[in-house]
């Protein structure tokens, strides 16, 4: 299994499609998430864990582990809804990147962004609990 990194980033994202193209051409995989939708580091870690487990069980919906992670993080069953809810928006100045098999500093340099993990906000226990429950519910709604 490739190393998975969760990093916060600052820098203007004018064209989210160019990010998609960048990751398609990379030697690993990556996704950019709207930092406002991330309810702490545990939210994304839980989504990654559930995604990996879905692949191990063979009940994954997506062909890509990171896209499956986005499903779990969003609490959605459909990829289009997950992207709409959690995906980074054009004009954003911050994002949370989940990288698989890619070196974070290199990605930040090549994208012209600055690593800043503080964009992965510290949230209230209630917000964290709600986010973790949404992640866990995806296993139920996928059936």
In short:
The chain is built from 6 helices and 4 strands, in the order βαβαααβαβα.
By helix and strand content, what is the structural category? Answer: alpha+beta
Second-tier CATH architecture = 2-Layer Sandwich
Instruction: Please give the domain count.
Output: 1
Overall body shape = globular
Low-confidence stretches: none
CATH class membership: Alpha Beta
Distance between the termini: 26 Å
Report the portion of residues in β strands: 15-25%
Query: H/E order of the elements?
Result: EHEHHHEHEH
Q: Count of DSSP E strands?
A: 4
Main sheet properties: 4 strands, antiparallel
Mean pLDDT: 94
The residue fraction in helices comes out at 40-55%
CATH topological fold name: PF0523-like
* Total count of helical runs of at least 4 residues: 6
Strand order of the largest sheet: 2-3-1-4
The CATH homologous superfamily is termed CGI121/TPRKB
Please give the structural blueprint.
Blueprint: E1 4-13, H1 16-25, E2 29-34, H2 41-57, H3 65-74, H4 79-86, E3 92-100, H5 104-111, E4 114-115, H6 125-141
Antiparallel strand pairs: 1-3, 1-4, 2-3
Helix pairs in contact: 2-3, 2-6, 3-4, 3-6
Question: What would you say this structure looks like, in words?
Answer:
The protein is α+β, with helices and mostly antiparallel strands and 143 residues long. It has a single domain, classed as 2-Layer Sandwich (PF0523-like), CATH 3.30.2380.10. Helix content is 49%, strand content 19%. It contains six helices and four strands. It has a four-stranded antiparallel β-sheet, sandwiched between helices. Helix 2 packs parallel to helix 6, helix 3 packs across helix 4 and helix 3 packs across helix 6. The longest helix is centred in the middle third of the chain and has 17 residues. It is globular and about 40 Å long. The mean pLDDT is 94.
């Amino acid at each position: 299994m490739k190393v998975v990194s969760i990093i916060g980033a600052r820098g203007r994202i004018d064209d989210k499609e160019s990010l998609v193209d960048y990751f398609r051409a990379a030697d690993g995989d990556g996704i950019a998430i709207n930092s406002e939708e991330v309810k702490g580091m545990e939210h994304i870690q839980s989504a990654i864990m559930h995604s990996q487990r879905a692949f191990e069980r063979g009940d994954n919906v997506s062909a890509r582990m990171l896209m499956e992670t986005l499903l779990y993080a969003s609490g959605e069953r459909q990829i289009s809804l997950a992207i709409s809810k959690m995906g980074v928006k054009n004009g954003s100045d911050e994002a949370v990147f989940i990288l698989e098999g890619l070196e974070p500093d290199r990605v930040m340099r090549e994208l012209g962004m600055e690593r800043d993990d503080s964009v992965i906000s510290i949230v209230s226990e209630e917000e964290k609990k709600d986010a973790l429950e949404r992640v866990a519910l995806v296993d139920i709604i996928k059936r």
